[in-house]
Design brief:
Keywords: 4Fe-4S, Cytoplasm, Iron, Iron-sulfur, Kinase, Membrane, Metal-binding, Transferase, Transmembrane, Transmembrane helix, Two-component regulatory system
InterPro entries: HATPase_C_sf (IPR036890), HATPase_dom (IPR003594), His_kinase_dom (IPR005467), Sensor_HK_TwoCompSys (IPR050482), Sig_transdc_His_kin-like_C (IPR004358), Sig_transdc_His_kin_sub3_dim/P (IPR011712)
Organism: Pseudomonas arsenicoxydans
Structural class: alpha+beta
Strand content: 5-15%
CATH class of the domain at 3-17 and 41-227: Alpha Beta
Protein name: Oxygen sensor histidine kinase NreB
CATH topology of the domain at 3-17 and 41-227: Beta-Lactamase
Number of helices: 13
EC number: 2.7.13.3
Largest sheet: 5 strands, antiparallel
Radius of gyration: 57 Å
Helix content: 55-70%
Order of helices and strands: HHHHHEEHEHEEHHHHEHEEHEE
Strand order of the largest sheet: 2-1-5-4-3
């Protein structure tokens, strides 16, 4: 039987056995069990250290690689050993058989004398220790001589002898399952067959093929010994590489673990600091709001004191001056008018100060109503026009924020009146994506963005720096848009 046929037969047997085994061993609930098994396996693998996971993966990959390398090397060594033994045996047998087949260059078969000589040769005790059977093939696949006489003059497939007819030595460790090998199978000993070309002495042409079966016990022992050596070398090399890789990865794994511990400690420290900072921020916000409330109360008290104190005294002075002017004819009227004018101006200024310091009750006002109120009061106080451009603003807002917005708009309008003569005064308000935006602009001469406002006498007052501090104390953002000749826009943004 041919080699391809043998391989096909083995493959069919293996597939059939494997399929049958899988079907018989598969229980009814196997898919569920497989899923549970995979989940447990993945969980256990994830719990392993990185170095262990690497070694397992490397052992799998490297093991498979070295397994195939070992198989390939073993197969090559086995093939080389068999081929070497076959060629040696072929040269040995050619020396015995070629003298008896020279007549086949003229005839199609062997003479009775040649057959008798070959039988006598096979009875040799020294030859029987190595060679158990001989066949001589004609070029058409007919057996012209065989130790098993039942095969003589029978024709068989030419798969193996075709290569030998080309002058090559063909060999294989056979399972002896071909039809012509029944005699050899019944010997029940390990054999390997060799096909050797037999040539004409004169022309060197291949005139027949000699097939002989040699005892394979010693050859198999030698092959097994070499195979063991190969696998020992491959195994030792694989183990050495895995050990080296393990120690290298283990070292890196320890470094990573130390870094992870350090990072966890830093993360815990950062978390603690974040919590502490958040608590401090809340305290700062509460303190700022409380300070704003106390500041407004203080301003109200100062305004009330001005109204109830100096304002009343100045009023009394004006009344007394009127009485004095009526009952004293000798009083210098020009001096009286000067004193009355000064007192009147002082009273007006004190009342303006007290009115500016004391805020109206804005607890119950919405942001829209508050902005309308501050614009209206500015118009009443200055006689200028204030335009409102208000979008959809929140109905509710904290009191500190309302106070801050009122003071911001009030001071920005005062600056617009003082430095832009109240031209183009506009209050804008909008609420977009959680951001409250308040803007006061004018059409004055403009200014530098970081300028601080001061009066003609050089006295400092609550200007842009004060506005910035007031807005930023509540977590807002303060900005100025201004350029010479294009007016000024003062912006405050608060995140609600």
């Amino acid at each position: 039987m041919a080699k391809d046929a043998k391989v096909q037969s083995k493959g069919e047997t293996f597939v059939g056995d494997q399929t049958e085994t899988l079907v018989e061993s598969a229980p009814a609930g196997e898919p569920g069990h497989k899923a549970i098994w995979r989940t447990r396996l993945k969980s256990r693998v994830r719990n392993l250290s990185r170095s262990t996971q690497f070694v397992l993966a490397a052992a799998l990959i490297l093991g498979l690689t070295m397994f195939f390398v070992g198989k390939l090397v073993s197969a090559r060594i086995e093939r080389a050993a068999v081929q070497s033994a076959a060629e040696a045996g072929a040269h040995y047998m050619e020396a015995f058989l070629e003298p008896y087949v020279q007549e086949m260059s003229r005839d199609s078969g062997l003479s009775a004398a040649s057959v008798e000589s070959l039988d006598h040769l096979m009875d040799s005790r020294s030859l029987k220790r190595h060679i158990v059977s001989i066949k001589i093939w004609r070029a058409d696949g007919t057996v012209v001589y065989s130790t098993d006489k039942s095969l003589t003059n029978r024709k068989f497939p030419m798969d193996e002898i075709a290569e030998a007819l080309k002058g090559n030595v063909v060999t294989d460790l056979e399972d002896l399952d071909q039809e012509e090998n029944e005699f050899e199978r019944n010997l029940h000993v390990p054999l390997y067959e060799i096909y050797a070309p037999l040539r004409d002495f004169n022309t060197g042409k291949v005139i027949a093929v000699g097939e002989f079966y040699e005892m394979a016990a010693s050859l198999e022992q030698e092959i097994n010994r070499i195979r063991q050596q190969v696998w020992m070398v491959v195994g030792a090399a694989t183990l050495a590489m895995l050990t080296l890789l393990f120690f290298l990865v283990r070292r890196g794994d320890k470094i990573i673990q130390r870094q992870q511990v350090a990072l966890r400690l830093r993360l815990l420290e950062q978390t603690r600091l974040h919590v502490s900072n958040a608590a401090l921020q809340r305290k700062i916000t509460t303190a700022t709001q409380e300070f704003s409330r106390i500041n407004e109360l203080t301003l109200r008290r100062i305004g009330a004191d001005l109204h109830d104190g100096p304002a009343q005294l100045l009023t009394l002075i004006l009344i007394r001056l009127d009485d004095l002017a009526e009952h004293c004819a000798d009083v210098d009227q020009e001096s009286m008018e000067t004193i009355r004018g000064a007192a009147t101006d002082a009273l007006r200024e004190v009342r303006d100060l007290s009115r500016g310091l004391a805020l109206p009750e804005i607890n119950d006002l919405s942001l829209v109503e508050e902005l309308q109120l501050v614009g209206q009061r500015h118009e009443q106080r200055t006689g200028t026009k204030v335009k409102l451009k208000l979008g959809q603003l929140p109905e509710e807002a904290p009191l500190p924020l309302k106070l801050c917005i009122y003071r911001f708009v009030q001071e920005a309008l005062n600056n617009a009146y003082r430095h832009a003569q109240g031209k183009g005064q506009v209050i804008s308000g909008d609420y977009l994506n959680g951001m409250l935006i308040i803007t006061v602009r004018d059409n004055g001469p403009g200014m530098a963005a970081d300028a601080l406002m001061g009066d003609a006498q050089g006295r400092t007052r609550l200007g842009l720096a004060g506005l910035r501090h007031r807005v930023e104390s509540l977590g807002g953002m303060f900005s100025i848009d201004s350029s010479p000749g294009k007016g000024t826009a003062v912006n405050a943004q608060f995140k609600l």
